Amino acid sequence: MTVGFSEQLLPPWRRAVLKVGSSLLAADGGGLSPRNAQALAGFVSDCMAAGREVVLVSSGAVAAGRAIVHADTAVDAPIAERQALAALGQAQLIGFWQGFFARPVAQVLLTHDDLRNRRRYLNARATLSALLRQRVLPIVNENDTVSVDELKLGDNDTLAAIVAALVDAEVLFIATDIDGLYDADPRRNPQARPVEVVARFSAELLSVAGGAGSASGTGGMRTKLDAAQRAAAAGIATVLFNGTRADVLEDLARDRLRGTRVHPTRSRGAARKHWLQNAPAEPGAIVVDHGAGDAIVEKGASLLPGGVLAVRGDFRRGDMIEILLREADGEQRLARGVSQYSAADIRRIARHHSREIEAILGYNYGGTVVHRDDLVLS
Questions:
Q1: Same domain, 258 and 154
Q2: 103 is in an annotated binding site
Q3: Is 1 annotated as a binding residue?
Q4: 19 annotated binding-site participant
Q5: Domain count, the chain
Q6: Any binding-site annotation on 222?
Q7: Residue 177 marked in a binding site
Q8: Residue 152 annotated as binding site
Q9: What pLDDT was estimated at residue 305?
């Protein structure tokens, strides 16, 4: 008889990403089933009612599209055919989730290229942040109609880990169709024992996770552990739990876990600081006055356009650039960070108040030139 998971308390969290795969949503006869979705939506609603923020990463578009045209598409069907089913099913998937919530939901379709491109990464983060501020539930999915990554690899698990870092989540919840990670496959080995806490990753641990999951989904426990490892490196904890059990979800909303908890391998602040310190910078810089320099160093403030004296080089929005402090005898390195505007834009808004940005440029990416979360002292 397989041993069950004991209860453990989760630390407090403010923002999370919940990943739900096709295996939990697909109906036996095709399409989408509310069987598990009802309790998963209840967990999200309970969290949001408590003032927390949740981003939902949901698979299921292909399953929904398959039911619309009554297609019997194999997992190894041509990519174009599965992309067509995803296009058919996206609206169905969003409508399916909206039916469980009184608050509005918003569809956000991303590709891995969007998240590798720094400018599109910033745009996606700004959009998701705006939705969360408005108490909307963002529902993220791979843009299967133009990207083949998820259709080929089943890596919405990886997408969820990337989104967790994108929105600065404290925890990544991954719903599975078993109770958590075991030291052997519990479906084949009744002596399998639960792994309740993962403090570090090893080749042995990853080999235990095995291969693909159910026929409805394309990712198994291995892709979930790979995602957890990615999240851990970004300072984000991961929780693996059984999304088919309403009692587990009710307890989870009260920070009581029966499943596997994966600890981050570093703090979120340390992970972010390491990236900011080591990411390659573009050959460009912003020169600031002493008022801006003091605010950055002494108060941990963002760089505002009013403190900009000059711009060096020709960089783009999203580029890593140096921030220089003008002294009587020259300029010295003060900090580095991700620019919210291009060099050409900053030249136009320099020495102006943040509220003037839109009037000058005709658009507005926010009131900061470099946000304090994207800035590290040199």
A1: yes
A2: no
A3: no
A4: yes
A5: 2
A6: yes
A7: yes
A8: no
A9: 98
Domain-terminating residue out of 271, 302, 326: 271
Q: Which of 208, 241, 271 is the last residue of a domain?
A: 271
User: Do 179 and 324 fall into the same domain?
Assistant: no
Is the entire prediction scored with pTM above 0.85?
A: no
Q: Is 223 annotated as a binding residue?
A: yes
Q: Residue 156, annotated ligand binder? A: yes
Residue 218 reports pLDDT greater than 60 = no
Number of H helices, E strands in the chain: 15, 17
Q: What is the pLDDT of residues 22-67, one digit of tens each?
A: 889 998 877 899 999 999 999 999 999 999 999 999 998 888 888 8
- Residue 144: pLDDT over 70: no
Q: Considering only CA atoms, which of 145, 151, 103, 105 is closest in space to residue 128?
A: 105
221 is in an annotated binding site: yes
Question: Rounded distance, CA 25 to CA 278, Å?
Answer: 41
For residue range 307-324, list pLDDT tens digits in order: 999 999 999 999 999 999
pLDDT at 3 (0 to 100) = 61
Identify the CA nearest to 63 among candidates 43, 44, 90, 40.
Answer: 90
Is 224 within any annotated ligand binding site? yes
Query: Which whole number is the average pLDDT over 361-369?
Result: 95
Residue 3 maps to a domain: no
**Which phi and psi angles does 132 have, rounded to 5°?**
-65, -40
With a CB cutoff of 8 Å and minimum separation 6, the contacts of 129 are 167
Would residue 210 be called left, alpha or beta, if left means φ above 0 and alpha means ψ between -120 and 50 degrees?
A: left
| Domain containing residue 137 | 8-271
Answer yes or no: is 51 a known binding residue.
Answer: no
- Residue position matching structure tokens 């843009």: 143
Question: Is 286 in the same domain as 261?
Answer: no
DSSP line for 42-108 = HHHHHHHHTT-EEEEEE--HHHHHHHHTT----TTS-HHHHHHHHHHHHHHHHHHHHTT-SS-EEEE
Q: Is the pLDDT of residue 356 over 50?
A: yes
Residue 273, annotated as binding a ligand: no
**Rounded to whole angstroms, how far apart are CA atoms 249 and 243?**
7
CA–CA distance, 344 with 117 (Å, rounded to integer): 20
Among the listed residues 279, 282, 291, 275, the one whose alpha carbon sits nearest the alpha carbon of residue 311: 282
